[in-house]
Amino acid sequence: MSENKNPETCNKACDSCSVENCGARKAGGFRIEPNSASSIKKIIGVVSGKGGVGKSFVTSLLAAQLTRDGYKCAVLDGDITGPSQAKAFGITEKACGNGEVLFPAVTKTGISVISTNMLLEREDQPVIWRGPMVANILKQFYQEVLWEDIDYMLVDMPPGTSDVPLTLFQSIPLDGIVIVTSPQELVSMVVEKAINMAAMMNIKVLGLIENMSYAVCPYCGEKLLVFGQSHIAATAEKFDLPVLARIPIDPAIAEHADSGMIEDLIVKEIEPAADFLKNI
Ligand code: ADP
I need a labelling partner for 113 at 20 to 30 A (CA). Which of 9, 172, 263, 268 fits? Predict the structure, then answer.
């Protein structure tokens, strides 16, 4: 059979499709499977254009909110060289296994987490692995960790568009990605890049989350646009994507994330984003 050039006739079920030489199949060919004891219903990637915009924070916050809403969640910390999930959830133990699978840490509200910190002897050790090694560790996190009865796996994706995020896009069957931006970024460009990358891998962009949107004055309650006017609404309209949340700058956020108490933090602005994920 020749290449399937008609996206209308593609049902993305590559395993049962008879079109052999198909672009979609080529992307799917890199897909890996979790181990047979694992079960993961939905996998959401959380991406950003650069570091420091709050991608990891949004990832843990979404997991914490979905858990509060009764779902069993997992966080795969794909930000290998800047891992922060173990710290945000207050995990200090090291990863251990039984020879067949690696066990994730389980947080106090029941979120399963795996992060590079859990493999390092000391938390302050830098990760100085080369790209292919990083990509392999990430694949192992997905394949060799025991992910039991997970409703939502949130993947804290490595920032940017280098070979490491590319490998994750290709190998893990993401149900969609959420793009996190902040007002000080060239939002339109960041979003366009992420959309293009996702499109090349046949992955759906679910929506945008703007972090550090504004600060609320503790005295008068006025919203202060610390990083200037937001362009998120115009960008969302341009690319026909929903804005899932706009999260303010709040010192409580940094305090909770830095002291391992992220699950105790209620951020009401993330609730519509978590609700949105329940319907994908
Ligand atoms: P990224 O994953 O994009 O590199 P992080 O999630 O690690 O960014 O966030 C960077 C720092 O900013 C962290 O210390 C985090 O606690 C803090 N931070 C993130 N979002 C907020 C916010 N809305 N208000 C205050 N601090 C924040």
Answer: 268
CA 56–ligand 1 middle distance (angstroms): 7
- Is the full-model pTM beyond 0.85? yes
Residue 26: Cβ within 10 Å count: 12
Residue minimizing CA distance to atom 27 of ligand 1: 254
**One-letter amino acid identity for 94?**
K
Q: Is the minimum distance from the CB of 255 to ligand 1 under 6 angstroms?
A: no
DSSP 8-state assignment for residue 3: -
Arch. (CATH architecture) of 33-277: 3-Layer(aba) Sandwich (3.40)
For 135-186, write each residue's pLDDT tens digit: 788 889 999 999 999 999 999 998 776 778 888 888 899 999 999 999 987 7
**Pocket lining: 54 vs ligand 1, CB cutoff 6 Å:** yes
- DSSP result, 225-251: -TT-S--HHHHHHHTT--EEEEEEE-H
